[in-house]
Amino acid sequence: MSADWLKPYMPRSLYARAALILVLPVVVVLLVVGIAFLQKHLEDVTEQMTRAASREVLLVVGVMEGAETQQEALAAARTDMQSLSMTASFLGINEEPMIGQRRWYDFIAPRVEADLRALLPDIEGVALPSGQEARLYINTDLGLLQLKFDRRRLSPAAPHQLIVTMVFFAVVMTTISFLYMRNQLRPITRLAEAAQAFGRGRVVPYSPGGAIEVRAAGSAFLDMRARIERQMEQRTMMLSGVSHDLRTPLTRLKLGLSMLPEDEAAPLKQDVDEMQLLLDSFLEFSQGTTEGSPETVEPIALIEQIVKDACRAGHVVALVSVEGEGTIALRPTAMRRAVENLIGNAVRYGERADISLSITPKSMRIRVEDDGPGIPPEQRSEAIKPFSRLDPARNQNRGSGVGLGLAIVSDIARAHGGVLRLSKSERLGGLCADIIIGR
């Protein structure tokens, strides 16, 4: 049987789930022990004690039978009542029984009253107040008889003490367990924070701690982080080195082509320019996710500045909407490069670019829309791969590239712990590119 129906009701955090695993058995044990104690012990003992007290009451009432006056009845039963530690009196004609209020935690009183009414048919009322005294009101031929005796003869004294003791020590031990559990979960929380920060492009100090399994996971994370950093550094150095080393022969080619006739050198110069563009794209791709350190910035000010710079460059760019406010940890240079790449693609394949910014307590979304031909849904996942060119879909006549623009944006979004999503613009009809980053 599947337990998927239970998932929406389960807590999401590890601490809450551990607390549930800890508290639930304690509650179940308390309930089981409490119910078993009440049913198997208290009720049986109470029934026996109530039956014995009822026989004593019947003895006293039986002795009073045959008396002609109330005083004679009380005198006849005086010796028996002294032996049974009871006191008796008759209520007046207009006098009502004093039942009083029971203690709210006296959960055995209803059972005592039920047993007494079953064993004493002539009983009129049962008073089990908060004191130690019990009062029974019994109808007789001479009037309403009031009998007083010790409440402890009807049920065990303070039967709630066991439950109170159980609950008290359960709370104490659960509190101690919670404190210990928090110390055990703290290393897991530190590991999660370090992994989350690294996923967003930040390296925070972390040292493994806690149980053996948690230490093993922490050590594996540190090894993985070191390997990823080495791979990123090697990729950056390789691409930067290749781009740098090829600039010198390209410069010599340009110098040599400048000495040739224009009609002969023009096609070769075009090839050299394309190679130069390719090298610049390689260098930009290698530096895209590592340029700058994370800083706490105001996204609104950053986007407004990017829009102003794009407008000064002659592009039709507008900031159409801003929702929310606040700061977020970003690499400003890398994020600027990502937004500028999206704007460049938008104005290359369309006429205009509209930018919107949305900030919520959990995430930030930068949206760039254009009025170009867009990208078909089946090609959007391919479009963000490096060196992928979808010129037939994006109108090759409007511009050219090496297929790294969206790849750079996707890399920068992932370096910030976010994602790049492509869709169709509902406003302009072209491409809609969203950079979504968690806060």
UniProtKB/TrEMBL annotation:
UniProt subcellular location: Cell inner membrane
Membrane topology term: Multi-pass membrane protein
EC number: 2.7.13.3
The protein, known as: histidine kinase
Listed PANTHER family: SENSOR HISTIDINE KINASE ENVZ, SENSOR PROTEIN CREC
Main subcellular localisation: membrane
Positions of the HAMP domain: 182-233
Keyword Membrane: yes
Molecular function GO terms recorded: ATP binding; phosphorelay sensor kinase activity
UniProtKB keywords: ATP-binding, Cell inner membrane, Cell membrane, Kinase, Membrane, Nucleotide-binding, Phosphoprotein, Transferase, Transmembrane, Transmembrane helix, Two-component regulatory system
Pfam families on file: HAMP, HATPase_c, HisKA
Catalytic activity annotation: ATP + protein L-histidine = ADP + protein N-phospho-L-histidine
Transmembrane segment boundaries: 14-38, 162-181
One of the record's GO cellular component terms: plasma membrane
InterPro entries in UniProt: 2C_sensor_his_kinase (IPR050980), HAMP_dom (IPR003660), HATPase_C_sf (IPR036890), HATPase_dom (IPR003594), His_kinase_dom (IPR005467), HisK_dim/P_dom (IPR003661), HisK_dim/P_sf (IPR036097), Sig_transdc_His_kin-like_C (IPR004358)
Domain of life per record: Bacteria
Histidine kinase domain mapped to chain residues: 241-439
